[in-house]
Predict the structure of Sulfonate ABC transporter ATP-binding protein.
Amino acid sequence: MSSGEIAIRGVSKTFRVDGRPLVALDRVDLDVAAGEFITIVGASGCGKSTLLRMIAGLEREHRGEIRHGGRPVSGPSLDRGLVFQEPRLFPWLTVAQNLALGLENARVDVAQKKRLVAEHLELVGLGGFGNAYPRQLSGGMAQRAAIARALVNRPEVLLLDEPFGALDAMTRAHLQGELQRIWDHEKITAILVTHDVDEAVLLGDRVVVMAPRPGRIARILDVSVPRPRDRRDPDLIRLRNEVLQELDAIKDAAPAALAS
């Protein structure tokens, strides 16, 4: 099995809320090929961010199995980079120092660390901002820095949890294009969780549509539109409408399921 592959088999996750069990995920099965870009969409509460955290190794108590490159995921790993909705940069450190934190446990010397930090600042378009502090960055620039920090130790898999959700529409659209470029350059496996259906079809090789109560995969749609993509492409618009119809059908079915 290639080192960038993710295999999810029969994964279920239950939380306890007010002393009662709440099933967040129910028997999820998914295979992600090395170098593939998967996007996951669904309503709030469908368990998509929980699933991402489980792949990252941050949620360890669950049934079923998650494997990365054939090895069970038992905790966080340098082989899986994670980007959250907020950049989570340390304000007292420069941008370069924040990136260097991603190499803290890597087996590289000081010169290599400096080179890797510089390379990844250039990769995300922040080549001249290594000595800046997070407060001096725009929201989009800060999120670029967060992506660079997740990539600096050359992980096999990049996990993104609503990375552009807090940004304005123009910045978001620009960074979606930048993420496509970075993914293509790094040849990395990527899994993106988003509420934005347009973003999901623009970026994904496949779109995983999740249904809630409990969280499960309702449908997986292939996106065969060639890259680089234009969000105005009629095929992307058709796929977006298909995903929206699926989400509407799930929403309409939910009250009936709860009543039964």
Summary: Residues 1-79+155-250 form a domain with the Rossmann fold fold (CATH 3.40.50.300).
